[in-house]
Inverse folding.
């Protein structure tokens, strides 16, 4: 039995055993150590936390008694969280300047024991605002090398990629404080944590979901068209996190009203990475170690949870069934891109978009509960996670020149019952829906895995983006030849996709100054997602590769002279 085969069986046994072992009881995830919130000044009422803002519900259901009845389904937690944006009498969430000051205060404070903190300038937004990352660790230093050699897994927490999801940012400010000198601080004996409480400061300032140039940051983790996405990619490349958790909020009205004439009932929606090419053992770790623990922790706090999903914005017709779609399997969002970078990667999505301050303490509490559970799981499973990570890296490198690439997948339709809130009566009702599941998505397009990819000398922008994500790119130092599959546009009328291609195998002369990206490296599936022209969100389909003649699949191991691309 080979060493690789032995490792496969060992880890398969380890993870399979986890599926049959009951989870231990999980403690309450968090009790804040900050001082109690002071009462409001005499003669002034506190900002209400349960009044629905105008426009959320239809006019026929927005009367005060009905709103009060709806609010009964979302009681406030027993504790209150305190950040600049959650202070009494506050009418706006934490500003960018206040967030910077909060993180600066934590990074400069005298912290207990061996805890170290450092505030990093990860990058700048399109309008020049800083994107901050706070490093908290008990390693010998706060630089990436110190964390990577500390023998502790690193966790990267992201929030507010969408500027109109403020509770996620407030929650990470609280978590930063608790990790620095609160009840979560002991976890730093086993893990390192890097927090980015506001990835989209321009959007937060404008109250907009999008970045300043109108792009959705959460869908820019493969193309890297925005400086915000490039800043996050560099953090992942340098700190190599074992867990990436991305905090969001969702609209409880929107498509739910359109599809069902109802409101969402769940406090939290969860999902882990599921792009094609996500290493199987990382999926198993997410399924068996993280997700059940998060559900248990949320239920212990009387918080309702389900898999992440979105309703269609289209009103169903008699011929169409109302449906919900789970998170996409495309490689461009943070959850999936980081899964392809060998992190256990997931999202925590709380109800909140469009609600203003309504239920803000409950929303923050739900974020903290789910994220704290994931931090504890990482600490508890630190050694096993390192085993899994080591295996999937080596296994990914060994797949070059063999097996199949899955280029595209489709959801599996199921029937499910979900709970919804009637906006008029405030009653809970069960609804049978068509549920498009992506947990075990079916493959719809496959292709033989090459040994690597060749890129033309003009593909410098592609090379820069791949290297920013941690991909090794080699430059051809002397001209030579390779056996390759080249692409041409498909002319089959039965394939209307404008990016459909046909392949032809031949000898390809490669000039010096062109590039080679071997798949005998860790990020093999990320490379294929970017460079297969007809894969979803490929660099060719978004004009980063200008011509099909500028990319080819190298089908045998090349015997060329290379140098590292600068």
């Amino acid at each position: 039995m080979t060493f690789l085969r032995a490792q496969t069986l060992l880890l398969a046994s380890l993870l399979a055993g986890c599926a049959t072992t009951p989870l231990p009881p999980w403690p309450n995830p968090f009790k804040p150590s900050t001082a109690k919130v002071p009462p409001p000044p005499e003669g002034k009422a506190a900002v209400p936390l349960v009044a629905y803002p105008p426009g959320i519900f239809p006019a026929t259901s927005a009367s005060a008694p009905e709103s009060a009845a709806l609010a009964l389904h979302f009681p406030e937690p027993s504790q209150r969280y305190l950040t600049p944006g959650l202070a009494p009498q506050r009418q706006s969430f934490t500003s960018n300047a206040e967030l910077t000051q909060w993180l600066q205060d934590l990074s400069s404070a005298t912290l207990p024991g061996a805890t170290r903190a450092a505030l990093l300038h990860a990058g700048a937004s399109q309008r020049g605002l800083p994107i901050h990352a706070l490093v908290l660790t008990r390693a010998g230093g706060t630089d990436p090398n110190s964390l990577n050699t500390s023998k502790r897994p690193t966790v990267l927490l992201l929030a507010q990629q969408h500027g109109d999801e403020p509770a996620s940012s407030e929650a990470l400010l609280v978590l930063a404080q608790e990790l620095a000198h609160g009840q979560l601080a002991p976890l730093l004996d086993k893990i390192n944590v890097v927090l980015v409480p506001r990835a989209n400061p321009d959007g937060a300032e404008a109250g907009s979901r999008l970045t300043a140039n109108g792009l959705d940051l959460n869908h820019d983790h493969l193309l890297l068209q925005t400086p915000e996405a490039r800043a996050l990619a560099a953090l992942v490349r340098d700190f190599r996190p074992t867990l990436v958790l991305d905090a969001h909020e969702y609209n409880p009205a929107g498509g739910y009203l359109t599809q069902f004439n109802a409101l969402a009932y769940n406090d939290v929606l969860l999902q882990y990475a599921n792009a094609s090419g996500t290493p199987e053992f990382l999926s198993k770790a997410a399924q068996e170690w993280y997700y059940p623990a998060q559900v248990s922790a949320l239920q212990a706090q009387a918080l309702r949870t389900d898999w992440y999903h979105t309703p269609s914005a289209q009103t169903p017709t008699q011929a169409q069934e109302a449906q919900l779609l789970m998170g996409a399997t495309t490689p461009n969002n943070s959850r999936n891109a980081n899964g392809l970078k060998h992190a256990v990667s997931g999202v925590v999505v709380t109800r909140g978009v469009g609600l203003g301050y309504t239920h803000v303490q409950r929303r923050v509490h739900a974020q903290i509960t789910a994220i704290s559970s994931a931090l504890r799981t990482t600490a508890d499973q630190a050694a096993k996670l390192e085993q899994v990570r080591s295996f999937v890296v080596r296994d990914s490198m060994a797949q070059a020149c063999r097996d199949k690439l899955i280029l595209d997948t489709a959801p599996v339709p199921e029937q499910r019952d979900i709970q919804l809130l009637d906006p008029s009566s405030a009653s809970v009702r069960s609804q049978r829906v068509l549920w498009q599941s992506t947990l075990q998505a079916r493959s719809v397009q496959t292709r033989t895995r090459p040994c690597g990819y060749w890129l033309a000398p003009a593909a410098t922008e592609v090379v820069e983006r791949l290297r920013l994500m941690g991909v090794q790119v080699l430059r051809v130092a002397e001209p030579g030849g390779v056996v390759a599959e080249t692409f041409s546009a498909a002319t089959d009328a039965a394939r209307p996709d404008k990016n459909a291609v046909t392949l032809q195998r031949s000898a390809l002369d490669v000039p010096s100054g062109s590039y080679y990206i071997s798949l005998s490296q860790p990020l093999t599936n990320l490379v294929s997602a970017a460079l297969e022209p007809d894969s979803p969100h490929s660099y060719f389909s978004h004009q980063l590769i200008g011509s099909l003649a500028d990319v080819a699949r190298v089908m045998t191991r090349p015997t060329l002279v290379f140098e590292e691309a600068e």
About this structure: The first helix runs from residue 3 to 20. Confidence is low (pLDDT under 50) at residues 1-66. The two ends are 41 Å apart (CA to CA).
